[in-house]
Every structure is written in structure tokens, then in C-alpha cells.
Design brief:
Layout: H1 2-20, H2 24-27, H3 38-50, H4 53-62, H5 67-81, H6 84-93, H7 105-124, H8 132-140, H9 144-150, E1 157-161, E2 167-169, E3 172-176, H10 178-185, E4 193-194
Parallel strand pairs: 1-3
Antiparallel strand pairs: 1-2, 3-4
Helix pairs in contact: 1-7, 3-5, 3-6, 3-7, 4-5, 7-8
GO molecular function: isomerase activity; metal ion binding
Organism: Kribbella albertanoniae
Protein name: Maleylpyruvate isomerase family mycothiol-dependent enzyme
């Protein structure tokens, strides 16, 4: 677990550096998360450091048992209450925070940060390549429940990374960089190629 936690801390450090260089206008630009600007994505990433478990459970209950609805409400409320600088400071102060999503372990924490980091950088047109070591961990944890969560159907499809020794599934071959395939399996647009 120590190695994974180091990867999580490294990803968060990279995100802090990236966000520090953004203009105020960039914080208000849309991300790949539907309806969320970069600000809401950062609020969502840092929610785990600012919300106690009882507060999360109460919020989910008020949202009719739907985590995504609660998360949406929380991100909007937090961006109304917190400045960009406060959100960034929260991320900076929690680079080594031991948070992990329920049932997801530290691999889930890494996935969360990597995918949401891509939600921001890809939408902003920032040419950031997540280190392959981190992408490998995220892709290695891929399973049917993850695809279902993101609403992705890979029936009769084999994904094959062009820059990493990784593949998933069987059927029509879809190739792309590991990062682009990660975007694909998490329901985001990606540059991939279908081979006949």
C-alpha cells in the first residue's frame, strides 16, 4: 500500500502545481464532467478532506440515497462558499491525506484523482500526460462494475494500449494511448482507433 499512497501523493502534488498555474478564467471554464467547471471538480476532489462521514451520509440521505445527486449539490454549494485559493489550499494541505473511497482502497483514491485531473486538463487543452505507472494502476483495477458505473458498454470489444502492455476484453480491437483508453472507460471522449 505504501507504493500506491506515494503515487496518490504524487498525483495530488502534480494537480496542485497545475492548478497553481491556472488563471481565474480557467477555473471558470467547463470540465469534462457535465455541468461542472474546473472549480466544481476541485471542490469535488477535496470534498473527502472537508466532509465527515456522518455529513456525507446525511447528504446522501437528503439526496434520496443517490451519491451523485449529493455530490452535485455539495460541489455547487462549496464553490459558492469557497474561493479558488481556498480550494487549492485544501488540496495542497491534503496531499498525503489517507482518504480512500469505500470499497475502492488506495487504488480507488488514485483513480479518483487521475480521472478528475484529466477532466480538467483535457477540457482546458493542457497537454499533460499522466505518468504511465499511475495509469497502469488505474487500468489494472478496471472491472465490469466500473464500466457499469460510468455507463460504458464494451461488449465484443478489446481495448489495447499503444504505450503500455495492457489490454482488456475481447472482440473488435480499439487502440489508443493508455490515458485515452482510461478516458474512454470512464465515459469521457478519447482519441482511439478501431481496427477492422
Amino acid at each position: 500500500m505504501t507504493d500506491i499512497r506515494e503515487l496518490v501523493a504524487a498525483e495530488r502534488s502534480d494537480l496542485v502545481e497545475l492548478l497553481t498555474g491556472l488563471s481565474e478564467e480557467d477555473w471558470d471554464k467547463p470540465s469534462l464532467c457535465a455541468g461542472w467547471r474546473v472549480r466544481e471538480v476541485v471542490a469535488h476532489i477535496t470534498m473527502a478532506y472537508r466532509y465527515s462521514m456522518p455529513r456525507v451520509l446525511l447528504g446522501i440521505a437528503k439526496a434520496g440515497g443517490r451519491f451523485n445527486r449529493f455530490s452535485e449539490r455539495a460541489a455547487r454549494a462549496d464553490t459558492a462558499a469557497l474561493s479558488n485559493a481556498e480550494l487549492l489550499a485544501c488540496l495542497r494541505e491534503n496531499i498525503n491525506h489517507p482518504w480512500k473511497p469505500p470499497g475502492g482502497g488506495y487504488e480507488g483514491a488514485l483513480s479518483h484523482d487521475v480521472i478528475h485531473g484529466l477532466d480538467m486538463t483535457v477540457a482546458l487543452g493542457i497537454d499533460r500526460r499522466v505518468p504511465l505507472e499511475r495509469v497502469r494502476v488505474v487500468l489494472s483495477g478496471l472491472g465490469p462494475k466500473h464500466l457499469k458505473y460510468f455507463g460504458v458498454d464494451l461488449s465484443n470489444t478489446e481495448l489495447r494500449a499503444t504505450d503500455l502492455d495492457w489490454s482488456y476484453g475481447a472482440g473488435e480491437v480499439v487502440t489508443g494511448t493508455a490515458q485515452d483508453l482510461l478516458l474512454l472507460v470512464s465515459g469521457r471522449d478519447a482519441s482511439v482507433r478501431r481496427d477492422s
